Fold these 3 entries.
Entry 1:
Amino acid sequence: MKKKKRVTLAAFNSIVDINTRVKLLKEAGSFIDERIIYGKYSVKIYSMFGFLGEVWVNLNKSIIEKVVALPGEQDLELFLSRTKLTDTI
């Protein structure tokens, strides 16, 4: 099994190319969840080496508009509090 190269939040934020950021999140991170905002954006959140990353996809244009690194678990709590859980029974 290939060992994941550790990346810091500062190093991640220094990456200019958005596609490189997405590739790194998908390869080294763990997918947590996805939310839809105003029917316009799909926001996928990943956990990676003590920080979080969000990938914002414009659903109308089918393009990634931004990739944002968040400092840590307190931001995950904000994400989860915005996620509406419903009972499907």
Entry 2:
Amino acid sequence: MHRGTGRCSAYLLLLNLALALAVRGDAQPGVPGSTPPAMPEPVNPLVDLLPSLRSAPAPPWVKEKLRVTYYSAVATIPRERYYTYRTPSGALVEADEVGPAGHSYMHCDVVALDAKAAVTAIGLYAIDPTTGQIRPSTQLAHVGVPGAGSAWADPATLAGAEGIAREGLKVVTMPYPLGGKTWRSIRFDYTSQNGHTAMVYDLDTGLLIHYNHAVESADHRHVQLATMQYKGQRLLTIPWAGQAAPEWVAPGANYRLQGTFSSVMPGAPTVPLAAAQTIEVLDTGPKWTTLKVVYWINNAAAETRRVVTGVAQLLRAYWLPMQGLGTLQAGQVIDKETLTGATVSVHMVEDDFVVLCEEGPEYRVLMAYSKQNGGLLGIQETFKIGTAVNQLELQIGD
């Protein structure tokens, strides 16, 4: 397999894997003392296939505060409807094999852009299969070169790609109908021993408009089907965009948020569990940072994610430029997202801190930031899951 195109499947595999976990709070507690599973960073596979993208500029339409949105769906299907297993006692049991599936909207927000890096915060919003309600699911990160971001590639480089020859690879220019228009596009198709991957870019702008894959599992028992379609783009309104990152944000800086998680069920007792997040700054640029976040439930490491924060970030930031926080007013509406129904507003303003709120029909997320240093002070999340209400409350701790 060619190294660059082989990573195509890994790119969206990671993004879509979370779709099967259609409810917030999907990560299960791990074994105490165990190392939590890591979430690798998505990469744009075209950088390996077209090395000149490493020095190419971002397309003119790519700017800080840009949001590109996709619809995405994934399903893991068995090759056989039933499998036979042998129990510890030696008995043979025929089991019904059903794989996970889900769909979501995916926001790719450009939170920082300079001559060397394009930094994108990627947010998945799961669509409930029964009610159609939408709620935040998973946060991912992408730090790439300006010429090849999470949702684009330099159109001048793409224009010269049709003649590339690789085993199993086809690159063709073609009309592509999507969203009521026909795009002048270039399509990368790759077939390997473990599956097939396709990516379609708009030749005029470099926008990624379509992706799909069918990838076989290592044990040859399952195939993952995934697709992603472009839905739209816009520039967000962010009061603190374009300002400087706090001075304390440097590699090695770390802190801890701690509190409780509980699931409230009608007629059932509520037992709060200890919850925490440990945050460590891994790398920094002039206007962005990458961070390692470890999620803890009941004193067990449940999950590790690599996330980003940038000066043009609207949601899920671990710091914000404090200069912009001082201009906010309580009740101020910052953003409304038509597709997901979410509203971002200023919930509270005090002398020392400000609280931002993201709210949708089935959830509310409050995040408190210090006016003195821009750091995240606390998180309060409320998610309705069927008849249950999941609640997470964290605040800065030792």
Entry 3:
Amino acid sequence: MIPTTQVSPETLELVPALLLGSRLWSAGGSIDEGELAALRVALLRTQHRRQLAAIPVYARLAAELSIDDDGLDPDGEVFLLSDDWLKGYDPAWADNGLPALTEWLAEVSTVRPSHPADVTDLGSWRAALRQQEVYVTVSSGTRGTRSLVPRDRMTLVALRSSSGVRLPWSLPPGQYDALLLTPRGMGSGIQSGAMGLGRAARRSAHLDDPLALDLLRRSAEDLPVIVYGSPARLVDLLAQVGPHLPLPTGSCVVTGGGWKGPSGAAVEELLASASTTFGLDPGRCVDTYSTAELNTVFVTCREGRYHVPPAVEVLVLDDALRPNRTAAGGRLAVLDPMAASYPGRLITSDVVRLGTDPCPCGLAGQTLLAGIRRLAGATERGCGVTGTSP
């Protein structure tokens, strides 16, 4: 078994440097935006060249489109892929064609697992592949076919390390409690995030635990608490705790996974309600944006803007799916050089507006304004719609 193709020494140097810069940025430290942008571009090019050599179908597509070794098309514009790249398998394979699904991973990524024996469903298949250091994330599948995102060890480490840019005020391990508004398991990205927070907490509980609210009340007299999960489940929590349950200084509420509230209420209004209920500064009640394919998270600030960590770059596209460098809004694409095992240059099905001026909160870099929406005809985004992925 060969779990992945060889990572270049340049990649091993660039990834830590870019992650370190993003962590410093998230803590409000002084950064050189130009230097981090150069690191990001260099790493994206390095990953592109490695993937040209390791992913035959990627190389064939690049050749057909005359994409050069820097990942640019004949007009000098960046090469982008649809997020359908990681959905191009026969959905029936997830039920009765798992060997073909294993082979498909090798067609769209750099991982090279051998097909595990005695697997009977998608869950056991994913668990067996983890033993080969191939980590497959499953998207929510709100547009039909689910993305299967195969991460090698380096890409997984980058994803986990990005936790340092999720919360500018991250709480030290063992010094907080966690109330997790997610079902147990690792079927979706938001569940994996909850598991990570729960492992580092002194005490943790899921919302469906009989003593979940007791944990909140004990935390109110003790440690700060992180309330984490989908907006829809936060609605459920607020209905249970009543109008006022002050939490200790340092506590926070973090939502994510996408949502359209049952009454059309905006996430901003929901977070404002949480701030009032728990007696927290509004800047500590935040929403996050991510996708199954993305290796970081965009977090809102007290101004309601989603901040893009300098480890990645966002682009807005015109109707021809070409980057529009002068437009303030359009379909979103993300350049993610942390994706070592699959192409990190994917077009999403979300429509966004870019912040065209510096954010009043003082944090540097690109921002997305609140009100991220789906393309016309696309269903609501993410595991926050149902609480978990299928």
